[in-house]
Description:
alpha+beta; Alpha-Beta Plaits; two-stranded antiparallel sheet
Amino acid sequence: MKRVYVKEEWCLGCHLCEYNCAFANSNERDMVSALKGKPWVSAVQIEESADVCFAVACRHCKEPLCVTACITGALTKAEDGSVRIDRDKCVGCHSCIMMCPYGAVVMDGNHVANKCQLCLTNKFGQPKCVEGCPNGAIVYEER
């Protein structure tokens, strides 16, 4: 299965992956109307320290602890191996957040879990964070 991987040594910390992710999942036609003056949440988060910065996104684990922890069945593992979320089923209990060893599940402004779905459920069909990374620090490949 193809997954999103990060090359920390190439990450500039520009946050363009976050903007592209939020736009891709906004159902808007352009980035300005999707993001300007509105609260938005990205399924990709940039972590920065003095020495390194890198994008944190769902790893779509073979045995996802977040799916096991989900009390409503909002998180499931699809046949293609990706971990999907049905945001309508989420009750905001934070169990998935506590169980994810990578910190890749976040809450949006409505207290609903949000995570990378590889842009498989929106109109783009491939991860916009990868496409929007100016330095090639984020890749979408099978390893």
